[in-house]
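Page header: ASSEMBLY MODEL / two components / 581 residues total.
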Amino acid sequence: MPAAFAVTSLHKRFRTRFGRTESVALDGVDLEVPRGEAFGLIGPNGAGKTTFIKCLLGISHPDSGRVELLGGRPEDPRSRARVGYLPERLALPGAWTPRAFLASVTRLKKLRPERSTLDGLLQRVGLSDAAERRIRGLSKGMRQRLGLAAALVGAPELLVLDEPTDGVDPLGRVEIRQLLTAELSRGATLFINSHLLSETERICTRIGILSRGRLVRSGPLEALTAVQQRWRVRFADGQPAAALVALGFEPAEGGTWEIAAPDAPALNHALDGARAAGALLVELERASRDLEDVLTEALAAGAA
Amino acid sequence: MTSIAVALDLLREAAARRWFLALGLALTGLLMLLLTSLRLEVVDGALAASRLFGQPLYHSIQAADVALRPVFLVASQIVFWGGLCFGVLSCADFAPALLSPGRIEHLLSLPVRRWELLAGTFLGVLALAVAGAVYASAGLVLVLGAKTGVWTGWPVVSAVLAAVAFGTVYAGMLAVTVWVRSAALSAAAGASLIVLGLLATHRVPILDLMGAGLGRALFAGVTAVVPPLGKLADAAGALASSSPLAPGGLLRLLAGTVAFAGALLAAATWRFERRDF
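Prediction written out in full:
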């Protein structure tokens, strides 16, 4: 599958006015996101996530490295015409109406601002009733939705969203998640930078963890959250706890048990032992962690 | 085309600002006041009597076109200097707003080249300046033309010259903003260019007064490149009042002014293309 974007050995340092290096924002990042995927970039504040996005879209110039955006260069307007971007803190012209703002974005994307299309976009983000209100009178969440509508102008192939649910209420987050799922179904690629791990976990299928300008983890969400060689088992009530502990099972959350097994024969050997001790197997799954655990572990490993 | 779209967006933004609404209302009010309060009696092409608010203005009988010359001269100076000062104050915020965090990132992510953004901003402000100056001068020509039968287009040409002068000043403001995003600094740059333009107008007598040294060399160097705005204002006044101009003088003046603005815009574009946001 062709890549939505590919970044190779990306370096970016911020300097003072006198040329001294102030901080290293990106320190040799390599990343390729296939088309049609939902990729989430996570990491602590100051990890370089927003700088990465800016380099990806040609808003900032990397010191070195290569960026390929939808098969072209980010400096090429033809590449950017196929991208929708929602910045972290989008500043909107307060005196304009949402419809006028979307019309302006449409014109700058060299498309014809048809009223029906603009109203359709406003409807998708739940702003139909605010189409003719001044933007300065909109709430933070409504402005965020308008920014999202602007990112959706022209049905872009790649959506780059920096904190898309920032300031949006919980119900609004559900709506935005549904909207992004619909975009994925359309074939768009999603690249999301969010500090809300639960949101990222729900939308994205691939994750990258950025720490101190380095991509310390990257891959499918399932693979990152899976705990290799550990299994979670639920037995029927009245299980022989002492026998299970003797067999190597460890008590876990919610009345479940976990066991380390390097391969299938070892796992079955342990389960046979448990059954022989009188335990009745109800549920078996690979033990996994949530994204917060993965992030914490990755950051700790990166700091070491 | 993209630059024009950016310029039109800037005009839409300007239309929503109180500064420009106030200017439009003030100019319209002034023209309406002249239309209703100024009474001019023209007999056989001569201005026989003139009254403003019922009070006589002139006692001598003059040819109407001759009598209107000082009026157009004063009006052109008001449009020129007043327009420059108003423009510096009211347009200082446009480029800083364009470069504000959260807005510039979004604009740069669109299929717009950086130079197109800058050119669009400049063109938008220039269009504003031309529109304001032409509205004021054309309104005055229409009011006086309707009352005296003297029709001339020169005050409008003179107003366009004032807009060109402001374009030069705004090029400096834009260049400063691209380096440091600040409306106050942008306005200060505009005001400094106006003062330097005035000093450049009188550079020879001022240089005569200065003793040799670094200060004199610096002054001579700076005022050699800054357009002499006073000369441009004089030319605008001469045009408006249908007075003779030195042959080729205005063209040379205009060429120098446009070249200066072009150099400032080139420097701004060079910086803008390299800047990170």
